Amino acid sequence: QKPSAGARFRAALQENNPLQVVGTINAYTAIMAERIGHKAIYLSGGGVANASYGLPDLGMTSLDNVLEDVRRITAASELPLLVDIDTGWGGAFNISRTIQEMIRAGAAAVHIEDQVAQKRCGHRPNKEIVSKEEMVDRIKAAVDARTDDDFFIMARTDSFAQEGLEAAIDRAQACIEAGADGIFAEAVTELEHYRAFKDALNVPILANITEFGKTKLYNRAELGESGADMVLYPLSAFRAMNKAAENVYTSILQNGDQQAVVDTMQTRAELYDYLNYHDFEQKLDELFKK
Ligand code: PYR
User: What's the rounded Cα separation, in Å, for the pair 50 and 62?
Assistant: First the structure.
């Protein structure tokens, strides 16, 4: 029997230190990340809101919205997928359903955070957090709901911005006591902050290296030396794709053709290669040969 998605995530974490987890905004980019050699992928909550719904990352998408993208990605790639479940979308039984539906959809891991339901992007000002007790209840509900012991439940704390390092570590400790498998220390700024989390806590630590945010674009090696076990690049490819699309749309409008931008495009042959297009076509020819 094939190991579960959760078991594959845990194996990837064992074998790669730190484990790079790259955001894949859709099924096709997940295929590319896998072929290129990545070992774990990520579905960003902000990414689902932005890319699939054209909305800001402000708690406007639902469990079902995110599940739909999870299913598309897990159908296309064998890589273990970490999913952003924001605040879990409700009270104890909503969180319970969220965990079970994520497992059913093939996710390997999730992170659930301590922001209020009216959440914001982790790297924006004026975030508000729930009490430590309420966050611990979220973790208890999530852990209790797990139908696969290997499914990886990460607690994300957004408390650093408001309450500082000591309080953030204290919250993280409480989440671990409630059963969290890992800690996502959101929007910390210095390498020594990761070191402090790592030294205080006995579980894997995730560093979110998102561009244009509060955290510098530290290298994998220095993050590893500072105690980070996972390095997240939630929207890196998405941002690059968007800039490329902007250039193409602009160029077509200004120039009347694609000549100036065709070199920036993935070719038809490259696309087909990632999709194993020719194998499908061959199958069709065999099935229906005259
Ligand atoms: C996001 O990309 O939405 C995160 O929360 C990291």
Answer: 13
User: For the chain, which domains are there?
Assistant: 5-235 (3.20.20.60), 242-287 (no CATH)
Query: Residue whose CA is closest, atom 2 of ligand 1?
Result: 44
What letters, b where the CB count within 10 A reaches 16 and e where it falls short, cover 190-217? Answer: ebebbebbbebbebbbbbbbbeebbbee
The reply to whether ligand 1 has any atom less than 6 angstroms from the CB of 69 is no
The interface predicted TM-score of the complex, written ipTM, equals 0.91
Q: What is the mean pLDDT of residues 63-75?
A: 98
Alpha carbon 56 to chain centroid, angstroms: 16
d(CA 222, CA 216) in angstroms, rounded, equals 12
* Ligand 1 pocket check for 26: Cβ under 6 Å: no
C-alpha–C-alpha distance, residues 51 and 33, integer Å: 18
Which range (23-27, 68-72, 117-121, 251-255) has the least confidence?
Answer: 117-121
Instruction: Please say whether the beta carbons of 86 and 119 come within 8 A.
Output: yes
pLDDT tens readout for residues 182-237 = 999 998 999 999 999 999 999 999 999 999 999 999 999 999 999 999 999 999 99
Query: What pLDDT was estimated at residue 12?
Result: 98
